[in-house]
Amino acid sequence: MILRQFLHSDPVGISYLFGCGGKAAGAVVDPVGDIQPYLQAADNAGMRIHFVVDTHIHADHLSAGRALADAAGSSYVLSSNARVSFPFKGVGDGDVLPLGNVTATVLHTPGHTPEHICILVTDRTRVDEPWFVFTGHTLMVGDLGRTELAVSAEEGAKQLFRSVSKLKGLPDYVEVLPGAYAGSVCGRRLSGKPWSTIGFEKRHNQAFAIENEAEFVGFMVAEIPPAPPEAAKIRAANSGVTAAAA
């Protein structure tokens, strides 16, 4: 297993390169900014990038996903529910991205956005059980992602509650690798520690610990963080509706 984490400060976010070193098959999750560090990291690890995944259509930064996929000759992956104006590899709940001895299983986790996905990763050279999960802006260390782009904040929170229940069904030892950390506008009380476990978040993440749907919805809509500046414009650009420079 190869895993590399890229921390970004402007905007605040986290990207990842992971995959099978033995079979030289890798993927990148939620790339931001200059694509060269990802290409170089893959080259250093002796891997070819087969997939570039965006966990959702981002509204806080311009995605580097399509540019990286083009440069690497790889597939650009989004949820099949994503509404964009360009070709992509659509995936749904339970689909698997094969990476040699590593498997990446898609979990559809709407709530932060309707098309949000998480990626559950298993290293079959060690065990057939999952090792970690890329949670994007659904589950972060210390909080859950604010709901957006739903019919209402309440409906988005209900979707998120169901998605959270799916993540809670994972073993407690599964590591949480989120798409953001402290300083991001996508959560309220995020930790500066950029990884955790399902079990720790169950015990110490107030939003993640709520079991009652009505209580959860009330909590999530009580203090929704404001959307990032020009969020609609950025999401439109990432959807291909407008040019990135517009």
Automatic annotation (TrEMBL):
Pfam families associated with the record: Lactamase_B
The keyword Metal-binding is assigned to this record: yes
One MF term in the entry's GO annotations: sulfur dioxygenase activity
GO biological process, one term: hydrogen sulfide metabolic process
Residues annotated as transmembrane: none
Keyword Signal appears in the UniProt entry: no
Metallo-beta-lactamase domain location: 12-180
Key words, A-Z: Metal-binding
Top-level taxon of origin: Bacteria
Name of the featured protein: Beta-lactamase
Organism annotation: Bradyrhizobium nanningense
